[in-house]
Amino acid sequence: MNGRVTAVSSNGEYSFTKPNRDSIRLLAGLGVEGDVHSGATVKHRSRIAQDPTQPNLRQVHLVHEELFVEVGEEGFKVGPGELGENITTRGIDLLGLPVGTLLRIGDSAVLEVTGLRNPCLQIDNFQGGLLKQVVGRDEAGNIVRKAGIMSVVREGGVVRPGDTLEVELPIGPHRPLDRV
């Protein structure tokens, strides 16, 4: 399974969206250099309020560009970085990857997938009704989250639009993604 990076984004301040960049630098064990969510312990405000010593399993947020097309068919206009992701991808079913999957990006960066993004009401502040497009229920009534995946940086490196993205599935039984 291979794909491509279509955009990279970061922001040093808390905001819902992240501006696109020419490149981002991933730092092992921390996240995106200069990004507000970078760090070994949790950086998301709601998580800090619960327990600021928790490990940061949400260092790097990835969203598949195909989601933008899907929500576009429902009348929403969303582009790279606008859902707060650091890396926008094309060609890989991010939501179908198991926990522990390694994503090799560009020349040297390696991410380990930790789980699904659990979208919040800020999405509706960005565009009213968008939350219902990225969180829903399947036929069995189970919650389906589509707002991307979260990861930690195992090996650092520079990531740019156009970089290849290679998937390395974990050995052994695969555990499906859950919210982190």
UniProtKB/TrEMBL annotation:
Pfam families linked: MOSC (PF03473)
Domain called MOSC: residue spans: 18-168
Protein name: MOSC domain-containing protein
Lineage, broadest ranks: Bacteria, Bacillati, Actinomycetota, Actinomycetes, Kitasatosporales
